[in-house]
Amino acid sequence: MVGIDEHIRMVLARHTVDTGPYSPVRGVQATIDPVLRRWGTQYIVDIRPSGSFAKGTAVHGGTDIDIFISLTSTLSDTLQSIYDTLFNALSQAGYAARRQNVSIGIAVGGWKVDVTPGRRQDQYGNYHSLWSNKAGSWLQTNINEHIRVVSGSGRIDEIRLMKIWRNRFGLDWPSFYLELFVIDALKGARSARCRTTSSPPFAPSISQSRHAGSSIPRIQTIPYRRP
C-alpha cells in the first residue's frame, strides 16, 4: 500500500512543469516576440515570463506560460486601448486570441499562453497598471513582488497540490489569490521542505457536498500527523 508521503510525491511528479532555463516552453517568448515588438514599438520596457511559471508553482492542466509586457509610463494610451490593440495585433498575426480578465489567451505550438500588458506607474518602479475586463477599470500589480513573495514562501509544494485540486474540480480560483491563501493558512506551520521527507503539514481532503441537487467539491484542511 502506498503511504501518504509517496502518494504526494507521485502526484506532484505527475503534474510537474519544466520551468528550467532549457524548458521547451520558453521558446514561446521568442516565437511571439516579433509580434509583440511590432505592436509595442519603443514603448516596451521588458517582455518576460511571469505568473505561476516564474514563481515555480505551475502544474499541468493550467496555462503553460505567462508572458508579461512592461510598457513605459510615458505611453499615453488608455489601459483599455492598450489591451484592445494587443488583442487585435495577436489576432491579426493568426492567433486565436481569447479575452480574459487582464490577460489574452493564445495557443503557440500547442502551448497554452497568457499574455498580459501593463503600463508602469512611473519610470523607475515595478508597479504597473493593468486593464481589468471583469472590473471595467484598472488594477495595480507588482510582478517582481509577487514572484519574490511566492517563490520564497517555502510553500511551493503545498501551493502546487492546491492548484492540482482546483484544476481537478474546475474551480474559478485565480492563482495568485490561491497562493496567498495557502501561504497565510500555513503561516507558522513547519514547511514541507524542512522535513526529512516531502510530507506537507496538511493534506487536502476532498469530499462531496450535496447542495441543490449538485455535487460540489469541498476542501478540508486536515493536520498531518506522522504515525
Automatic annotation (TrEMBL):
InterPro entries listed in its UniProt record: NT_sf
Positions of region (Disordered): 197-227
Biased composition (Polar residues): 197-212
Keywords: Plasmid, Transferase
Molecular-function GO term, any one: transferase activity
UniProt name for this protein: Nucleotidyltransferase
Protein species of origin: Sphingomonas changnyeongensis
